[in-house]
Amino acid sequence: MRTPHALLTTTVTAAALAAAVVTPAPAAGADAVPSPGTYYVQSATTGLNAADSAGAVEQHRPRGNEDRQQWNLRADGARHLLENTDSPGTCLGRAGDQARTVACASPEAHWQITPVGTDQFTLADPGTDRRLTVAPKTAGANHPALLTVGTGTGDLATWYLTPVGPVTQPMPPQDRRTLDQVTFLTAHNAYANGVDGGFAPPFVNLFPNQNRGIERQLADGVRGFMLDIHQTPDGAILCHNSCTLVSRPVALWVDLQRMVDFLRAHPDQFVTVFLEDYVDPAVLRAELARVRGLSEVLYRPDRTGVRENGWPAMADLTAAGQRLLIFSDHSRAADQSAGLTRDSFGVMYQREWTVENHWSMGSGAGTSDWSCYSRWYDAGTNIPLTRTEPGFRPLFVMNHFRDTTVASTAGTDNAKLADRARRFCQPAARKKPNYLAVDRYDLGDPAAAVTSLNTYTYP
Fold first, then answer.
1. pTM exceeds 0.90, yes or no
2. 160 phi and psi, to 5 degrees?
3. 445-454 pLDDT per residue, tens
4. How far apart are CA 150 and CA 98, in angstroms?
5. Are 146 and 98 in contact (CB under 8 A)?
6. Which terminal Cβ of the chain has fewer Cβ within 10 Å, N or C?
């Protein structure tokens, strides 16, 4: 389970690549109240949606057209109403200091909607300083579910109005599309395939996440690889949970060498590696040093102005030869205490560059949970899927798999990938998924979802 150097040896310089990045443009009319239509009322703090819960209004995990989370926005004079799509005549409103659903004819259903930033708004009780607000966290807990109406300020009282049916644009030509506009097929636990070597102890290895080796995955169009690495006397080794009792496990450098060799043979391709990382930074550095030609293809967004100016065009990355991006889910703070950070040798800290939804849709059989919310949202961490920065939009890793891989279930789930991406996860993140991570990519044609998402940009 996902339980999740010298650069630029070509004539393209790092400075030239930095100059070629494309700054995301603000949405048209970003300083005005959105037009009438159907929206999610989405917290700028948590990325969760306002939902009608038996009369109370709570923030819930985004669930598309389920769970009473969609609201029809319409003007009523200088004020606005938000009518629940599942209960005509019932609107998002107030009762004292709590958010409640009320009759749309009630004065408590009116809101003064005020723009406060690009595509962000406050919803106030007209004529007062009382706003729809996410309650602060208490010690050791997440933000409470129940939404309040009070004098909150800042992000706690700031909301996105995310359209249920967004206007998309055609994908730019090949030479102009940027990395954050492209979607890649990604293999969850790509190493756990039973072809290249062992990956888990006996019995656990009866449920591989994939059934084709890394070289075949590359040939089949997989361009994102989720790999779990554990520390042993032999270095960074690919195993599930632990390398104890695993027969013939594969070293990380071996699979990375396969990818580097592929990239050298296919100079127009781009590959991303996601490390679930349980090794010391020095061990990882030594492992990467064994990969021949790695420095020639390694992409370093931290050195090319991405955070200030946005992601570069794929064509510029290809021209620069920078076509392998490596992320680690390890903590920068822990590495700083150890005195060696992973980005000093080209491995990016994933939480700084991406957002990612929770990795599990449920058990290996039965109904699935399509809610789409951040895997990094708990009492101590809050990185919402909606996170953006001025000039920079994190890449979106969309997980679409279960606790245990059952072939028939994976095939059914993969056939529904495009639908979940569009209706659930895309509005939840307010961005198109860049990596569609699945088990058994050979079943259910998830590549068709990748092709479909690569026909447009969002927003």
1. yes
2. -90, 145
3. 999 999 999 9
4. 8
5. yes
6. C
